[in-house]
Amino acid sequence: MAGLSASGLKTQIKSYTETDSTVLSDSVLENIILNAQYRIFRDVPIDADRKQQTGNLVVGQETINAPAGAVFIRGIQVYDSTSATTGANTWLEKKDITYLQEYISSTESAKRGQPKYYAMFGGATGESDTTSGRMMFAPVPDTTYKFRVHYNAAPALLENDDTNYISLNFPNGLLYCCLSEAYSFLKGPIDMLTLYENKYKEEVQKFANEQVGRRRRDDYTDGTIRIPINSVNP
Predict the structure, then answer these.
(1) What is the pLDDT of residues 123-141, one digit of tens each?
(2) Going along the chain, which residue ranges are E strands?
(3) Prediction pTM value
(4) 172: closest CA among 12, 18, 38?
């Protein structure tokens, strides 16, 4: 699939801004590209970042680590089974941790059961499972239920001469966003900054329509998209 690599993006930024490496060094360009990627990541919920992870709860343990690199949790299923993520299951209700602390009077055996609620706590400071926050359950598990976590992960970022989902599937928007960042760094000209900022906003709207619109519907469930055509009355 055609797209942009990190090195190709750097070349285009310097070409569009008519500068060279004495003005836009590799370290400056890398920061511009990083800022642009995070801006797109915040502007559009990208399907490629939607992940799942399965595992087993631990008897008597009220918390587990969030999946590595998790940015936010979209939902948690807990299955009646302890060996398979199939069959009867329950979607947990998300609550504040203070609610769970009040709900859990004890972790002793008599108070345990199949979890109904979960809460997030702990800072997400890194990309490992021990630094991406934790999830608390109530009641505390009374057996090793299978669970499935639905979450959004931190995106893979452009490095070296690599490509990623954004550079392959949204290269024009990534370029415009980088150019907006670049002209902001270069302190103008303001008309060029405005031009590429508007170009980015126009393209990111189209990208958002694809990601949260077309990719999350189908013809059978939602019907075929049709454009109404006005006809002249006879």
Answers:
(1) 766 677 677 888 999 999 9
(2) 50-56, 63-65, 70-79, 89-91, 93-94, 117-124, 132-138, 146-153
(3) 0.82
(4) 12
